[in-house]
Write a structure and sequence with these properties.
CATH class of the largest domain: Alpha Beta
Number of strands: 9
Radius of gyration: 21 Å
Strand content: 5-15%
Shape: globular
Helix content: 40-55%
Structural class: alpha/beta
CATH topology of the largest domain: Rossmann fold
Amino acid sequence: MKVGEIVAERIGFIGLGIMGRPMARHLVKAGYELVAHSRSRQHVDALCAESTTVIGADSPRAVAEQAATVITMLPDSPDVQDVVFGENGLAATMQSGGLLVDMSTISPEVAIEVNTTLAAKGVASLDAPVSGGEQGAINAALSIMVGGEAADVERAMPLFQAMGSTIVHVGAAGAGQTVKACNQIMVALHYAAASEALVLGAKAGVDPQKLIQVLSGGLATSRVLEMKGQKMVDRQFAPGFRVDLHRKDLAIALASGKAQGVPLPATALVDQLFQALATAGRGDLDHSALITIYEDLANFQLGRVN
């Protein structure tokens, strides 16, 4: 492969964080050549070392010079704006007929801004945020909610199928991000409900293992309880999705609610609990660490005799 040469099955990938790395690996396994860029060069070098079909790039511009289709997986709206609109960004480099697939979680307004700006250059874009966390990324089992034109979704479908198991075209540009905001509301509230139930039951003397067994067998069950209940009891909070990122997502949801005239009182309350987590120095923990705030409030810790 020559650096600088664009080929049909070469994909650009920008953002090799906790989620991006396994997603990029699945694309390599599916037979795609990748041009990869990330703020942490070590992640790029590691991916290049794993496969001869990966080229490292020093900037978003260098990615777009070598790939007509570019995937971004970045932390927040300003990061996407910088990669797309900044110096050495994608907007100045991508050519007519290209496709940007932004799989970051950002505000719907920024997703629409990206779509409108690139469309004026003849470049298509999709906002395609994901749900499923690190484990979903590792297992290629992500849920992908896609906003944009149907023809562009069809064009990107083989890429989505390499990384996810549930792919739904939810509407026009920005709709993917709106659905992701709804998703993050649900996840946050499920964590709050599980935390309240586990701390109440355990402080009252019930074995947390029995609590999980019973709650998982009826209407109270949830994917949060299924995937994270035991880790919450065992206090295993290595980040699959960090508290600080969920705080960012809840801010997007609350802003969207304000823009649409939709009150989100429960979301606002859980947002404050996540803020308390960050203030307590736990922003880098997994979002399941929300249970620790309930433990603090109850002066009780699961697994400890009080």
